[in-house]
C-alpha cells in the first residue's frame, strides 16, 4: 500500500462520504479540504460532521496510525488542528497534545477490491518499457491531455524561473547580464554548460559590453576567461593575437584566469567549446543590447535572423587551436536556435512579462507552437506509444511529465493517471 493512493481515495471521496471511525463515531464528509504538498497536514480546511457535530480543520493521512508518532506529529504545532486521521491500518490510538483522542477512519476494510485492482494495474510497470500507463494512453480523451499539457508547460516555466530569479538577484536585476549568463550555459552545451555558467557569473558583464565593439577583442576575453587559451605549441597568428589581447584585458580589468579547462571528450566537433565561444562572440558583437532586442520581437523568423551567426573565419578549417580540419563554415544551426528559443528566450520573456505585470500567454504559446518538437529519448518514447508531439510546447510538456511524474511513479498526481484510475472506480 502507498500513501498516495490513500490521498487519492480521500480527495475524490472514493470511500463514500459517510464513514465510521474506529471509535464508532459517524463521520460525514462535507469537504475533503485542499491538498497540501508542503509541510504540515495533508489536507487543509476540511469540514466534517462527527456524531452530528460540525468540525472544521485539517486531515492527516498515514499508512499506519502509529506513523503519527514515528513522524513526531504529537510535538509539532502544525498538527494541533487535525480533526481526522485517515489510515490504512489503525494499529494504535492517536492523541493530541491536550490528550484528546483524534477520530480515526481505517480504510483497509471499506475500499472495494475493484479500486485496488485498478491501482495495481496502473502502477504495474513490470510489463511497461517506457511509462506505467503506456498500454492505456490511447483511451485518454484529447481534452484531458490538452489541458494537462498546458499545465505541465506552465509548471516547467515556473521551475525554469527559479534559476532566472537567482541570477537576477546576483546581478542586481541586470537582465542583459542574466541573458548572457544563460546563453553561456547553453553554448557550453550539456557537458560544459554548468562550468560556462559559473564562469559567466564571475565575469562582470560591463567588460563584455566594453569589449564587444571589436569581435576579436571579445573573443580574446571569452576564450581566455573560459580557459581555452592555455594551448602549448600553437603558433597560429590568430591564437597568438588572442593570447596577447587577453593578457592586456586581464591586467586592465583585473580578471581572474580560469584554472579549469572545458571538456572536449564526448562532444560532437560542431559543439566544441572553441566553436561555440566564437559564435557567441559574433552574436554579442552583432547585437550590443541583445536582451532588449529579444524582448521587442515576436516573429520566429526574426529570432532566427538574430541568432544565425558564424564563428570567425579561422574556424572554417579548425575545430581546435593549431589543428587544421576540412573547410566548412561554422554557423549556428536552426536546431540549436530552436533550443535557445525554448530554453532561454521564452523563459526570460515569461519572467520579464511577470516582472512588468503584463500578460505573457498568447505571444509565448504562439511562438512555442511554431517551433518543431525536440528530438530526444523521452519525446521519441512518447512518439512510440502513440503520443506524437506536434510542436515544442508539447515536447516540453512531455519532458516535464516524464521527469517529474512518470519516472517518479507520481501517477496519482498526474491528470492522465487520475483519469485512468477514476474511470474504473464508480461504486
From TrEMBL:
It comes from the Bacteria. InterPro entries: DUF2851 (IPR021272). This is DUF2851 family protein. It comes from Flagellimonas allohymeniacidonis.
